[in-house]
Amino acid sequence: MSHAPGISAQRNRGKPKAQADVCLILEGSYPFVTGGVSSWTHELIKAQSHLSFHLVFLVAPGADPACRYELPANVSGTTRIVLQQIPAGRRRISGEKKLMNRLEGPMLRLLSEGDLADLVEVQAILAGRKTEVGSNVLLDSSHAWQMLVRMYNATYPEASFLDYFWSWRVLFGGIYSVLLAEMPQARIYHSASTGYAGLFAARAALETGRPVLLTEHGIYTNERRIEIAMADWFHEMEEDGLSVHRLPHQLSDMWVKAFTACSRCCYKAADKIITLFEGNQLFQLMDGAQRNKMMVIPNGVDIDHYTAIPREHPPRPPTVALIGRVVQIKDVKSFIRACAMLQESIPELQALIMGSTTEEAHYYAECKQMVEHMGLENIITFTGQVSVDEYLGKIDVVVLTSISEGQPLIILEAGAAGIPVVATDAGACREILLSDHHDGDPPHQGGVVTPLSNPASTAQAVERLLVDREWYQRCSEGIRMRIRRYYNKSCFNRTYRDLYEYYRHHPGSDAAAGRVV
Fold first, then answer.
1. Residue 184 located in a structural domain
2. Which of 297, 323, 112, 330 is nearest to 192 (CA)?
3. Over 132-186, what HEC string results?
4. 492 contacts: CB under 8 Å, gap ≥ 6
5. Is 91 exposed, middle or buried (0-12, 13-18, 19+ CB in 10 A)?
6. What is the SS3 assignment for 70-85?
7. What DSSP element (H or E) covers 59?
8. Rounded to the nearest 10 degrees, how much is the dihedral formed by the CA atoms of 435, 438, 443, 445?
9. Which DSSP letter does residue 328 get?
10. For residues 331 and 299, is the Cβ–Cβ distance under 8 A?
């Protein structure tokens, strides 16, 4: 991994000069954020070195523009879309009132129902006027104001109008930024999530007629629901004038409906709906995915690489690690509480929290304060973003306390190195550590699965692994065998190679019928 200064500083990363083989659509992840999706993206591109990739980055306003990865040589171009930021456009245009009146119905339906026909209609309305329209007309004009008021009265009249106003601005600004952005030319469009990225992928299917693939790691709508429920999802917007301490029920419903609608659009436009494990498919079906398009491609790791990492044995202190970003969805505070419990029975314990501390600075500050308040400064170390390989040899147990996960790469990496894992029952954790794959191979346990937000269960599971050496060895051998058998990187690379090869030479599905040109 290389910490490059930014996209603009990297070699020849302007607009594409030729059609790329694959356009990867990425929201809030690679190459600006480290972690699961970003690592997956980086390895995917490198493994398909025979193909050219154009990368579309959808980023939040004010996001750090510094790259955390050096883009591989087969990245032929990049497009950066800042959500909620659209060109100003003309101050006034002819037929402005008619344009806004025509947009109102399909936009409202698009963000509540997710019907692809409404996206087609919206794109048809905007298609001939993209050089004229912008924030002046779509967000700031008197006709936009009247449209907002009508939508408020028709949908959430019991909510605070001020809160609705700012929610509408942010949501519609994000949608317009996706709909008005430049569309790179590619043979395949591949989105790493639904949400805004998924909406861009649906637009690509309609405008180009080319195939669209979707790979979901975690389920986007579930993660947004969790963020809204955790009540500080709007902190960044408070600086822009939305002052709410708790998002009103009505408006949280508005956001959830909008994210679900974007997912539904992407599902309808996609030729393949891929996820990392079977458990995600139920949620995809609930959000409108079509079963005949669905496919599971598990993550894979380089088994030989991680097996070769030398293990450091005692007399070093017993060491546990949470490897992940210091953000609320990882529930780092439960890990800290578990460590406080563990120190009573294992006073020599050392605990590492390994991951970026910059994404949710306020949460990191709370975690640091919590460590100090509980007197754990000599036990818990925040390492920041580091090379995991350099630490795996001296870690005894990897711990995940996440509220939501996809298929965590760190479990696969630690498992390949023979490190047992204690993880919450989120995402694919149970499937990786415990599940019987019904292939005739007797199940081997690779660790322990605990309930969400239950530090006592986490501490108990970790303590048993650190104290009972026979149990530790069984789990160490078990997880190594599971990863080698079911999560081999060569299988992952071959499956995506075959998918890309097939869809490079085929048009998109019937979902693009009636497409906008």
1. no
2. 297
3. CCCHHHHCCCHHHHHHHHHHHHHHCCCCCHHHHHHHHHHHHHHHHHHHHCCCCCE
4. 47, 297, 298, 299, 300
5. exposed
6. CCCCCEEEEEEEECCC
7. strand 53-59
8. -10
9. G
10. no
Task: Please state, in angstroms and rounded to a whole number, the distance separating the CA atoms of residues 474 and 444.
Answer: 8
Q: Could you tell me if residue 404 is inside a domain? A: yes
Rg of the chain in Å (alpha carbons):
24
Classify residue 288 as left (phi > 0), alpha (psi -120 to 50) or beta: left
Length of the chain: 517
CA dist 193 and 263 (Å) reads 9
pLDDT attached to residue 241 = 38
Confidence of residue 3 (pLDDT cuts 50, 70, 90): very low
Residue 371: per-residue pLDDT: 98
Task: Show the 3-state SS of 278-304.
Answer: CHHHHHHHHCCCCHHHEEECCCCECHH
Q: Is residue 94 part of a domain?
A: no
Please enumerate in sequence order all residues whose Cβ is within 8 A of that of 337, keeping only pairs 6 or more positions apart, or say none.
455
Tokens of 244: 């709410």
DSSP SS3 for 72: coil
Render pLDDT for 164-180 as a digit per residue (tens, 0 to 9). 999 999 999 999 999 99
Domain presence at residue 410: yes
Reduced to 3 states (helix: H, G, I; strand: E, B; else coil), residue 32 is coil
* Single-letter amino acid code for the residue at 4: A
Overall number of domains in the chain? 1
Cα gap 392→464, rounded to integer Å: 20
Cis status of the peptide bond prior to 442, with omega within 30 of 0: no
CATH number at residue 455: 3.40.50.2000
The pLDDT tens digits for 56-79 are 999 999 888 899 999 999 999 999
Tokens for 253?
């419903």
Domain containing residue 464: 303-487
